[in-house]
């Protein structure tokens, strides 16, 4: 997404753009992949020789559920996108692509869940408990979580 500075009137300019999901660079990410374009709806204004761009950036992505490991689709949104660019006297345009990528990457969920109530996998047999109980004796689930936490340490 390129913003041409001479196209921005004094009162500012509303801009929309759609960039291919590839700009996110998620090809090698095991937990996330792109599922659609990166969309930006921005308002650009030049104030005191500084370009100020604010608005909303969103992207459709597929993420791996941290509990059940199923891939699911979700929309990542940065509704508080705000960047400013100083030293624009000498330039004719500003490339926003890297800023859009960064905005989405920062909003990727740390602990993606396909559903808040996802039951995850059985620790004993590995069955996806969202599909129903697995028949293992229920045992002490808290103990199983603690054992897993200790393993990670
Ligand atoms: Zn899940
Ligand atoms: Zn089981």
Q: What's the short story on this structure?
A:
The protein has two helices and six strands; from the N terminus they run ββββββαα.
* Sheet with the most strands: spatial strand order: 2-3-4-5
Count the strands? 6
Distinct ligands, ions and cofactors found in the model: zinc ion
Distance between the termini: 43 Å
Low-confidence stretches: none
Largest sheet: 4 strands, antiparallel
Tell me the radius of gyration: 22 Å
Mean pLDDT: 91
Domain unit count = 2
β-strand percent reads 35-45%
Estimate percent helicity.
10-25%
Anisotropy-based shape: elongated
Number of helices: 2
Helix/strand/pairing category: alpha+beta
- Helix and strand run: EEEEEEHH
What would your notes on this structure say?
This protein is an alpha+beta fold and 153 residues long. It has 2 domains: 2-118, no CATH class; 119-153, no CATH class. The protein has 2 helices and 6 strands. A 4-stranded antiparallel β-sheet has the order 2-3-4-5, with helices on one face. The chain is elongated, with a radius of gyration of 22 Å. The relative contact order is 0.17. It binds zinc ion (2 copies). The site of one zinc ion has 7 residues, from loops.
């Amino acid at each position: 997404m390129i913003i041409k500075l001479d196209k921005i009137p004094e009162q500012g300019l509303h801009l929309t753009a759609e960039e291919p999901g590839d700009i996110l660079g998620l090809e090698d990410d095991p937990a996330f992949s792109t599922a659609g374009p990166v969309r930006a709806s921005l308002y650009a204004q030049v104030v005191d020789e500084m370009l100020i761009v604010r608005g909303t950036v969103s992207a459709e992505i597929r993420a791996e559920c941290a509990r059940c490991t199923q891939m699911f689709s979700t929309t990542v949104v940065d509704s508080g996108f705000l960047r400013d660019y100083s030293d624009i006297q000498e330039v004719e345009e500003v490339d926003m692509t890297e800023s859009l990528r960064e905005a989405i990457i920062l909003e990727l969920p740390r602990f993606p869940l396909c559903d808040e109530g996802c039951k995850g996998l059985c620790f004993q047999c590995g069955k996806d408990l969202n599909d129903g109980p697995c028949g293992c004796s229920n045992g002490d689930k808290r103990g199983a979580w603690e054992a897993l936490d200790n393993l990670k340490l």
